[in-house]
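Changelog entry: the Adenine DNA glycosylase record was regenerated in this release. Current contents:
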Amino acid sequence: MIFSNLLIQWYLQNKRDLPWRNTTDPYPIWLSEIMLQQTRVAQGMPYFLSFTTAFPTVFDLAKANEEQVLKLWQGLGYYSRARNLHKTAQHIAFDLSGIFPGNYNDLLKLKGVGEYTAAAIASFSYNEAVPVVDGNVFRVLSRYFDVDTDIAQASAKKEFAALAFELMPKDTRGGAELSEANPATFNQAIMEFGALQCVPKSPNCGICVFNESCAALQKNKVDQLPVKSKKLKVRNRYFNYLVVADEMGNTIIQKRTDKGIWHNLYEFPLIETEKEEDFDFISTQIQTDFSDQYEVISMLEYNEKSIIHKLSHQHLHIKFWKVSVKGTIENGIDGETLRTFPFPIVIHNFIENEI
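Regenerated structure tokens:
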């Protein structure tokens, strides 16, 4: 078909040289796909290189402890991806003798692997004729064919997957080496086209290889597609972190064991409030919370204005408070030891700049 041929020709001329594209080994392909969920390539690349250096095989990743994995993941966000990555590595290494499932349906059974990731690994590693459908694919197909289906609807993925499958070359001979007519190349091409050319805002349609056949361009609808009606409701939360320091300069941290954001990462003692509170309110809370453990000598704000840390569904308004206490904290940790723990990036940055 003209669409597929033009797309693949564009890809072979314009594709980025990315390390996970130079192999059919499912381990680095799986690693890259997990990392690039909700993450741009430029942001994910250093993490991919760090992980493949620290854990060159799935056995190395499986044998690591979770805190090592979370520390290397620090700053990439969506930390459940890292925890699932580690558990899946252990399953593959210890239960499957290091051999990844060899097809889409079996890949789907892995923890943390959804339809998109399973399709990506199946096509890139095994050249299975299964389409990938991500935000790039929704955008390219909806614009080229003028599909106004709301992509927030559950049925949309099936509709776009069927369209992508119809367009996909079905030649699966000879493994997944890049050629001009196989599923692996087509999937890479359509995602790359969405990432580099058919971008969400203000794409340069004047230089697009499809500018004579794209329905959205002909109908002046490029900025209206894809249609997505669902809006995430953002919750505001107010975090007050207590950076306790004893006379030796040691501090205390705690592990977030509750399910939810930052599960199994570390943080300073936390007072969460309903709104942004002033010095007097937090001071009273600290005196109440710490009076039976420590004698508070002084207290000050590190940041008068809250740091706003935006997550996909929450905006965290964060203040750090220095709390100096008399004597020595039992099991307190020094600044050097503090830096070995995995923290949310906003706390990591605070430690690097202030402690």
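The chain has 15 helices and seven strands.
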